[in-house]
Amino acid sequence: MARSPLWRSATGRKAQVLRMPHLVSEEEFVDGCTRCHQCLSSCETGVIVIGAGGFPELDFNKAECSFCGQCAKACGEALFRDSEHSPWPYRVALDDTCLTLQGIECRSCADACDMAAISFKPTIGISHPVLSTACNGCGACLPRCPSQSLSLQIPKESAHD
Description:
- By secondary structure, this protein is α+β, with helices and mostly antiparallel strands.
- It has helices at residues 26-32, 38-42, 70-74, 108-112; strands spanning 48-50, 56-58, 91-94, 118-120, 129-131, 150-153.
- The protein has a two-stranded antiparallel sheet. It has a two-stranded antiparallel ribbon with strand order 3-6. Strands 4-5 form a two-stranded antiparallel sheet.
């Protein structure tokens, strides 16, 4: 069985499908997407895959999102917002299955994070991860976590923006 931290939580519940950054609402996207898959062929990292119903979605087990904007440029429909805005509200979240919280040394997430949004505060014993606001939600850390303890979530303070 493939690891898929975004699709299934530790409890096996299906998680939200994540689409490309800068998209209009999910409803507008589903109504307007022609499923031409130009976004897939233009994606520089290969994170865009064909999902349920033939609609494009992101698979962070394949790659991270570089926010290059090529998917938006390749799309012939008006499905993307201006790239001057934040690409999306998602940020990495950590659950209590994290190996370091179980007393096992691991820093895989921080090693994968080019933004240095995940760090480990020096302490006696095993350090715990510290998540910073520098996270852009690129997803690079997600497949690196051996315990699938990371997910992309909308922070509570951003949920009403």
